[in-house]
């Protein structure tokens, strides 16, 4: 001892760890165990050289815990766009602290993350841990981790409670339809135990995913399920610690789920608040990844974007470097139980040899202990070493080279066992080990693995062996000589191919040695690849499944369409199916063409035809998808003409309505459609309705008639529900019998509750069943659209969810929801639709964003939003009539409020709008009527008077007082003003204001105040007129129309100046 500092350090360590530094050891075995370097003993809870990083983790944990336990925030006066009249929380209901730890392999990333559990009291926290593996699909790891969490959670938290009513489980079970429950039961077996009746019913009521799924629907359904599970856990009233280890082996799926949950819970304007059961949410996300393996920037970009979400998300990025010699000395002092002054020289030697990389340091210690260079002396009762022997050891270039040298010093059987396991992956199940042992791939496989465990090279958890570090697996694999690798992979593949449950392992092996297989073996493994792909699909590992199907295709003969037709067709079909389920359609097109070119029957091409249609439609090309769908229907025997006479269509609708008039729901269900040809016809007719909605509305109406007639003649199927819903719209088009049309829509909706595909059906019918809003208040429509959107997202029916989202944005705009929130909502949907490459609804929502920007004056075009001029050009080029109407109507909406009446009239002439029973027509008539009266007053044109009076008659005939009364009063006021009946005009203006307020149309109340004010000023009532205009500005401010308020205030100032003169 040479200084007071050393004495202080010795005394401090003795006080903190008396058993280590005060008690003499006498047993070498016990001394070795106390190092915690061998036999996977966990006891050294210290983290050396990472105090700064640990403090950051603890601070983040404390922030999350304090947020969850803090009192509920107070509400302010912000309007909630989803529920007008309710308040929206401004204090964030969710706080997310995200810490991402990076470093080279062996730098201690996992240890740093897990150290939080040892140094911070996580009592009361929910803990969820995922360690990703290069050889295992990330979705399977997420599912297993979630299942492990719920198993532990139930044992700890629900022992004396009703599980179904627990805040975590109630929203999960109540939000899932039968398909969702089946998916949940297959992914997480614990739910079969928790909810046996629900899960049993789900298993019996549904079938596996089929080719009828939408593009990417299976992956999106899986995404939505994890989204729901994580959201429920995070909002369960407890802080949550989520550890994502080895993110370099994950795909984007995991980070997409996490970021989507955080975004959902922090954006209250999305209609899914951050509260579930009134509980606040707190999430501490700890992620780790090897920076030398992140060869693309996708992961880093996702982390960066997460940090830019909202103030509720705080992101820290830590980069771990090497340990200093001082850090190593502290480690040695603790492990050897000797004062730091006595181990300083050893620590400097080890630092020189290892350059301070933590894994390298640990492995070097193991090595010099195994060689006897560092040993425990019974005589001196302490560890001793030879400095010269350590200095004489050659320095490895890196930890991988050092590990390789260490393995080469082990018994050959141990090394051979590690080589075999490295071929399989980071971890290997017990059943595979037993099978490989019996096949004598190497001698004494299981016994050798037990010896490897004693060396600290392998760990065993349950029925799974795993390398103690992923670098050990890499080094073990690199020890296999190149010429021997393919042979070893083949032997392993052939050995495990005999067990169906291990078919995925077999195909993984064969994919690495295809060129050394004989024809018989290639055929065997092609069939096995098909089985492995199906197995992976059942496990919802779609990317992995696609790889297996591609492997199977690669193993087929060059003349496979003749020599192996059935196997070839099934592999191609499944490759296409899983490509769509996983949302990857880049390589699907050529496979579809191969099927169409080589299939021996028309029936064998139907799946491929369906997929081709959906790809075309997803690009926004509805005209081509409609034409090709008609061609397929013709081959199925359903000849639907694209050229439709209006009189013929009306007759068809009336005839179909007469056949369906007295048919009840129970009667429809009596007969089930079983004819395959008819079922296929219904399938393609349903697609035709979707495509033609955007390109040729009359064709949609005619197709719905055919679907209803096929149902009445041949029996009921799920597509019948869509046909009935769509037919309700056709009835509105052709007849004035609104009540019958509404009843038809209600009949379709009556099939939703209890349906096995309830959420997807609700999402579809939200788009189809709009006729009821001719009777119900329009303010209920945005909520229905939001519910349809939520349902579609929940089950992965992204297409219909996005259509619901589009309608939700439209309805919020024209019904007077807060414009700033609508603009924010539409920008989120634009971003989401661009992500899913759904071009049709994407362009539609862009028109809403443009309209909002025209009112608010805020135009942040960071999302690549196109102008109305660009959208009009696109609509004309693609013959997308829906987009044409959307652009045109929203432009009219903007111009009417900016008093640009001539532009409104010009726009009304650009597009012929025949369907007077669709929602855009009501607003167009209202805008045209107001504009016609305004311009007629200045020009005295009779044709404009006639146009305005036609609008008055139109609204007079509509029955819904709630939806149309205020508009009729305002049109009547303008007509009275034109006729010179000022008293009647004044009364009508006031009635319109009162009706707008009563029926919650704040934007139309503002418009009525504005027109009333101008009417009074024009008739010399300056004070009253200015008073009405000021009230109008207040209403426009509430609406969020800042630019409109600015323009109107300028007009008010101008009126004041004129009045002074």
Briefly characterize the structure:
This protein is mainly alpha-helical. The longest helix is centred in the last third of the chain and has 21 residues, at 919-939.
Structure, described:
It is a single chain. This protein has 1061 residues and is mostly helical. The protein is 65% helix and 6% strand. It has a five-stranded parallel β-sheet, with helices on both faces. Strands 8-10-9 form a three-stranded antiparallel β-sheet. The radius of gyration is 35 Å and the shape is globular.
What labels would you give this structure?
1061 residues; mainly alpha; 5-stranded parallel β-sheet; 52 helices
Record the SSE blueprint:
Layout lengths: L3 H13 L1 H4 L6 H6 L17 H19 L24 E10 L5 H11 L6 E6 L6 H20 L11 H7 L2 H10 L2 H5 L1 H10 L11 H18 L4 E7 L6 H15 L14 E10 L7 H10 L5 E7 L5 H12 L3 H15 L3 H13 L3 E4 L4 E4 L1 H6 L6 H10 L3 H13 L2 E3 H9 L6 H10 L3 E4 L2 E4 L2 H9 L3 H15 L6 H8 L8 H20 L3 H14 L4 H4 L1 H17 L6 H11 L7 H13 L3 H14 L10 H15 L4 H5 L6 H20 L1 H18 L3 H17 L3 H12 L8 H11 L11 H16 L2 H18 L3 H18 L2 H18 L11 H11 L2 H17 L3 H10 L8 H21 L2 H15 L4 H19 L2 H17 L3 H17 L3 H18 L2 H19 L1
Parallel strand pairs: 1-4, 1-5, 2-3, 3-4
Antiparallel strand pairs: 6-7, 8-10, 9-10
Helix pairs in contact: 4-5, 8-10, 11-12, 12-13, 14-15, 15-16, 16-18, 18-22, 19-21, 19-22, 23-24, 24-25, 25-26, 25-28, 26-28, 28-29, 29-30, 30-31, 30-34, 31-34, 32-35, 32-36, 34-35, 34-36, 35-36, 36-37, 36-38, 38-39, 38-40, 39-40, 40-41, 40-42, 41-42, 42-44, 43-44, 44-45, 44-46, 45-46, 46-47, 46-48, ...
């Amino acid at each position: 001892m040479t200084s007071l500092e050393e004495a202080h350090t010795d005394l401090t360590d003795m006080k903190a760890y008396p058993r280590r530094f005060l008690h003499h050891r006498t047993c070498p075995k016990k001394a070795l165990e106390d190092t915690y370097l061998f036999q996977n003993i966990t006891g050294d809870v210290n983290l050396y050289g990472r105090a700064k990083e640990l403090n950051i983790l603890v601070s983040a944990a404390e922030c999350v815990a304090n947020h969850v336990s803090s009192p509920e925030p107070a509400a302010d006066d912000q309007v909630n766009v989803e529920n007008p009249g309710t308040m929206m929380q401004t204090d964030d209901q969710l706080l997310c602290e995200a810490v991402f730890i990076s470093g080279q392999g062996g730098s201690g990333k996992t240890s740093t993350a897990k150290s939080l559990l040892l140094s911070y009291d996580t009592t009361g926290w929910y803990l969820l841990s995922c360690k990703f593996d290069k050889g295992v699909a990330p979705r399977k790891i997420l599912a297993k981790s979630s299942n492990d969490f719920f198993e532990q959670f139930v044992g700890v938290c629900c022992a004396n409670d009703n599980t179904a009513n627990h805040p975590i489980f109630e929203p999960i079970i109540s939000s899932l339809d039968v398909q969702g429950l089946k998916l949940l039961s297959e992914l997480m077996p614990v739910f079969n135990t928790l909810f046996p009746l629900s899960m049993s019913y789900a298993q019996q009521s549904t079938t596996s995913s089929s080719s009828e799924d939408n593009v990417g629907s299976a992956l999106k359904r899986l995404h939505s399920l994890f989204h729901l599970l994580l959201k429920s856990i995070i909002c369960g009233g407890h802080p949550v610690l989520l550890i994502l280890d080895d993110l370099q082996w994950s795909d984007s799926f995991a980070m997409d789920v996490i970021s989507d949950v955080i975004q959902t819970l922090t954006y209250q304007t999305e209609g899914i608040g951050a509260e579930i059961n009134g509980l606040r949410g707190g999430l501490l996300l700890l992620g780790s990844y090897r920076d030398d393996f992140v060869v693309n920037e996708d992961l880093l970009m996702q982390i960066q974007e997460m940090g830019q979400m909202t103030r509720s998300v705080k992101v820290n990025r830590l980069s771990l470097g090497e340990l200093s010699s001082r850090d190593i000395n502290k480690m040695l002092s603790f492990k050897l139980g000797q004062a730091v002054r006595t181990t300083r020289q050893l620590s400097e030697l080890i630092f020189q040899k290892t350059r301070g990389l933590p894994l390298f340091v640990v492995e070097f210690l193991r090595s010099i202990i195994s060689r006897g260079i560092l040993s425990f002396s019974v005589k001196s009762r302490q560890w001793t070493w030879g400095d010269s022997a350590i200095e004489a050891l050659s320095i490895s270039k890196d930890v991988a080279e050092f590990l390789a040298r260490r393995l080469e010093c082990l018994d050959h059987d141990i090394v051979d066992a590690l080589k075999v396991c490295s071929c399989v992956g980071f971890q290997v199940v017990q059943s595979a080990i037993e099978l490989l042992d019996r096949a004598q791939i190497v001698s004494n496989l299981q016994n050798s693995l037990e010896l490897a465990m004693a060396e600290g090279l392998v760990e065993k958890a349950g029925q799974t062996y795993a390398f103690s570090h992923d670098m050990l697996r890499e080094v073990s694999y690199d020890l296999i000589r190149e010429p021997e690798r393919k042979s070893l992979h083949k032997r392993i593949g052939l050995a495990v191919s005999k067990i169906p449950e291990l078919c995925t392992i077999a195909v993984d092996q064969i994919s690495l040695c295809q060129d050394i297989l004989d024809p018989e073996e290639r055929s065997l493994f092609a069939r096995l690849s098909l089985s492995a792909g199906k197995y992976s699909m059942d496990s919802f590992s779609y990317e992995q499944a696609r790889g297996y199907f591609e492997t199977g295709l690669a193993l087929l003969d060059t003349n496979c369409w003749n020599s192996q037709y059935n196997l070839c067709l099934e592999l191609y079909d499944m490759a296409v199916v899983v490509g769509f389920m996983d949302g990857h359609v880049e390589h699907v097109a050529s496979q579809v063409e191969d099927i169409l070119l080589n299939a021996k029957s028309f029936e064998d091409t139907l799946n491929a035809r369906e997929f081709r249609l959906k790809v075309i439609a997803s690009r926004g090309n509805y005209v081509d998808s409609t034409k090709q769908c008609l061609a397929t229907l013709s081959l199925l025997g359903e000849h639907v003409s694209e050229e439709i006479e209006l009189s013929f269509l009306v007759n068809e609708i009336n005839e179909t309505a007469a056949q369906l008039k007295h048919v009840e729901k129970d009667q429809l269900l009596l007969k089930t459609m079983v004819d395959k040809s008819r079922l296929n016809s219904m399938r393609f007719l349903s697609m035709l309705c979707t495509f033609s909605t955007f390109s040729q509305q009359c064709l949609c109406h005619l197709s719905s008639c055919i679907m209803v007639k096929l149902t009445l003649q041949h029996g009921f199927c799920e597509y019948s529900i869509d046909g009935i819903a769509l037919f309700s719209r056709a009835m509105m088009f052709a007849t004035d019998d609104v009540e019958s049309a509404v009843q038809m829509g209600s009949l379709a909706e009556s099939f939703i509750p209890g349906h096995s595909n309830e959420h997807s059906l609700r999402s579809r019918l939200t788009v189809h069943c709009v006729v009821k809003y001719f009777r119900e208040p329009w303010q209920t429509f945005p909520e229905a659209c939001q519910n349809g959107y939520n349902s579609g997202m929940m089950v992965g029916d992204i297409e219909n969810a996005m259509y619901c989202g589009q309608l939700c944005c439209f309805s919020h705009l024209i019904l007077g929801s807060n414009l700033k929130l609508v603009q924010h909502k539409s920008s989120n949907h634009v971003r989401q639709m661009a992500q899913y490459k759904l071009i049709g609804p994407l362009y539609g929502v862009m028109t809403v964003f443009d309209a909002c920007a025209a009112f608010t004056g805020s135009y942040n075009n960071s999302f690549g939003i196109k102008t109305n001029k660009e959208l009009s050009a696109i609509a004309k080029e693609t013959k997308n009539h829906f987009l044409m109407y959307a652009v045109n109507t929203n432009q009219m909406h903007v111009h009417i409020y900016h008093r640009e009446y001539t532009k409104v009239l010009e726009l009304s002439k650009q597009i012929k709008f025949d369907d007077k029973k669709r929602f855009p027509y009501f607003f167009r008539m209202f805008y045209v009527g107001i504009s016609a009266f305004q311009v007629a007053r200045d020009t005295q044109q009779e044709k404009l008077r006639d146009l305005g009076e036609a609008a008055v008659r139109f609204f007079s005939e509509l029955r819904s007082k709630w939806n149309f009364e205020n508009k009729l009063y305002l049109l009547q006021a303008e007509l009275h003003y034109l006729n010179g009946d000022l008293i009647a005009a004044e009364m009508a203006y006031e009635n319109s204001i009162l009706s707008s307020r009563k029926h919650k149309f704040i934007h139309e109340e503002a418009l009525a105040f504005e027109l009333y004010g101008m009417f009074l000023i024009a008739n010399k009532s300056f004070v009253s007129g200015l008073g009405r205009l000021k009230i109008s500005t207040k209403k426009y401010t509430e609406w969020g129309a800042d630019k409109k308020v600015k323009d109107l205030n300028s007009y008010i100032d101008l009126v004041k100046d004129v009045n002074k003169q």
